[in-house]
């Protein structure tokens, strides 16, 4: 569920390229100083191979830090509204919520946090509800959903990070998303 921004990915790629260049220079200069000019030709590819391994390690470490930072930042922003929803103390609450909410049930709530690929919504259940941009209708886009804006969406499922996954797309069985107080009886409209 995480999306890294372009700056973070560019930084990881840049560090990898710099490591390869440094490895090639170090391998070539080491081989030249020890064995001479012809052996430096072998030292450059050896340095590149060693630096590729080092660049992979550094890149993996930077990626881990970026992903961890994003998760920590997300929890820090959601904690004032939902408390420590991820803690072990809330496991029973989460399990009872998962067993109690049916897929397709319409929930209403208020937007508590916007991010590049969706919004988090407070539905009053004590756990964050996630509405991604891809699950929005054309008429209601998350970029237009201001903080504290009311949103109506259906339960699509549950995430391993303890999020209620929401969608505003049409349910093939029922048609479009409706408010819980709306009736679907055609005879009332006549």
Written overview of the protein:
It is a single chain. The protein has 190 residues and is of the alpha+beta class. The protein folds into two domains: 6-81; 84-167, Beta Barrel (OB fold (Dihydrolipoamide Acetyltransferase, E2P)), CATH 2.40.50.140. It is 45% helix and 17% strand. It contains three helices and five strands; from the N terminus they run αααβββββ. The protein has helices spanning 6-35, 37-82, 91-100, and strands spanning 106-115, 118-122, 128-132, 150-158, 164-167. It has a five-stranded mixed β-barrel with strand order 1-2-3-5-4. β1 (106-115) and β2 (118-122) form a beta hairpin. The longest helix has 46 residues, at 37-82. The protein is elongated. Residues 176-190 have low confidence and may be disordered.
Write out key terms for the chains shown.
190 residues; alpha+beta; OB fold (Dihydrolipoamide Acetyltransferase, E2P); 2 domains; five-stranded mixed beta barrel; 45% helix
Query: Can you tell me the CATH superfamily of the largest domain?
Result: Nucleic acid-binding proteins
Span of the ends, CA to CA = 46 Å
Strand content: 15-25%
Shape: elongated
SSE order in H/E notation? HHHEEEEE
Low-confidence stretches: 176-190
Helix content: 40-55%
Largest sheet data: 5 strands, mixed, barrel
Please tell me how large the radius of gyration is. 26 Å
Number of domains: 2
SS class:
alpha+beta
Number of strands: 5
Average of pLDDT: 76
CATH structural class of the largest domain: Mainly Beta
The CATH architecture of the largest domain is Beta Barrel
What fold name goes in the CATH topology slot of the largest domain? OB fold (Dihydrolipoamide Acetyltransferase, E2P)
Tally the helices: what do you get?
A: 3
- Major sheet strand order: 1-2-3-5-4
